[in-house]
Amino acid sequence: MLVLSCMELDDRSPERATAGETTITPVVYVLALAATALGLAHHLDHVVRGNHVGWPLTPDVNPFTYSLVIYPLIAISLYLTITERAEAGYWALFFALSAGMLAFFHVSPWAVEPPQDVIDPYANPLVGYLAFAILLVLIGSVVFGSLYMAVLWYRSDA
Predict the structure, then answer these.
(1) Is 86 in contact with 77 (CB distance < 8 Å)?
(2) Cβ neighbours of 155 (radius 10 Å)
(3) Distances in whole angstroms, Cα of residue 47 to Cα of each of 9, 79, 138, 153
């Protein structure tokens, strides 16, 4: 059964984890859902501003197209977590890789979609800055998720 009661989740806090128990706390679900919502908002922003958009909305296959794979990966990861096959270490690495890719493609010196590509297409600069703020919050949320899950992972090995 995919539905776990809150009591079952609360009883698995890392401080009480022993051999055979999970290190996952309910926070991982909040982090994953928050990052997913922010990611959807960022992908919608691509569509609204009309740049760096690829398949399935245009015939071009580009980084936008490849970035859509994150949604099935999150679904699979949540399934693995609910069935107790993914632990804190998995999520720490998943969030870290996500943060690295987001930062590389958006704010690094080699950015495919640098900040001006997010901000400038909007007639109202405030809307552009809001879109960029959503992107920064997305990056921040996965960085935080990676650090939080790394701490849980470390505690479980201690």
Answers:
(1) yes
(2) 14
(3) 37, 29, 17, 37
- The count of C-alpha atoms lying within 13 angstroms of the C-alpha of 88, restricted to the half-sphere facing its C-beta, is 22
95 pLDDT higher than 70:
yes
Region of 36 (left: φ > 0; alpha: ψ -120 to 50; beta: rest) is alpha
For the stretch 20-31, pLDDT in tens is: 567 888 999 999
- Tokens standing for residue 53: 């958009």
pTM reported for the whole predicted model: 0.84
CB atoms within 10 A of CB 106: 21
Per-domain boundaries in the chain: 23-157
